[in-house]
């Protein structure tokens, strides 16, 4: 009988958990009091570690926010694009995967809290906008435009501008979040992301595709 593998020392498990604990503490503070009003010292205190220990994992407060983006948003983008790239045939399925993939990911309050912080702060902090662009948008937008371009080449979509079409596809979701988080204007039924997605897909499918028996789709 072989001896069981020794348990991982508690201090080692604790050290490995610390980056996540720092991110959790930072997210709570960013949501409750704003990114600009939160200090690294406050994050350290909330995480139960020293300020110096925070800097072992994150060189700056912006790096902490970037860590939140890469933990919460990047996986949604990667999963959604991977699923969309596997679909062959009717591009309606691809567009549905893209729109619903984003909405489903944002349904988790801890995930939605991250773009909420970014949206609120990016309007006054260009460096945050640049960080989000580098971490998410510069990867997602070219891939999305390429999928639209493929569908146009296959004759499945009208010859529209791929980049502008992608903005048209994503624009309503972005505007919806801006209205809610920057201007505090929300529908009477609440954020209703899933309802927004279905409404948007209905308009999109019946406005983007060519007329004819196959040109309309009830969703």
Protein topology:
Layout: H1 10-33, H2 40-47, H3 51-57, H4 61-86, H5 91-106, H6 109-122, H7 126-153, H8 162-181, H9 193-208
Describe this structure in words.
There is one protein chain. The protein has 219 residues and is mostly helical. The protein folds into two domains: 8-59, Arc Repressor Mutant, subunit A (Orthogonal Bundle); 66-208, Tetracycline Repressor, domain 2, CATH 1.10.357. The chain is built from nine helices and no strands. The longest helix is centred in the middle third of the chain and has 28 residues, at 126-153. The radius of gyration is 21 Å and the shape is elongated. Mean pLDDT is 86; it is low at 5-13.
- What string, H for helix and E for strand, traces the elements in order? HHHHHHHHH
CATH topology name of the largest domain: Tetracycline Repressor, domain 2
CATH architecture of the largest domain: Orthogonal Bundle
The termini sit apart by 60 Å
Query: In the residues, how many domains can be counted?
Result: 2
* Major sheet description: none
Helix content: over 70%
Q: What is the name of the CATH class of the largest domain?
A: Mainly Alpha
Q: Give the helix tally.
A: 9
β-sheet strand percentage = under 5%
Question: In CATH, what is the homologous superfamily of the largest domain?
Answer: Tetracycline Repressor, domain 2
Give the number of DSSP strands.
0
In the predicted model, the low-confidence regions spanning at least 5 consecutive residues are: 5-13
Structural class: mainly alpha
Radius of gyration: 21 Å
Q: What do the pLDDT scores average to?
A: 86
Shape: elongated
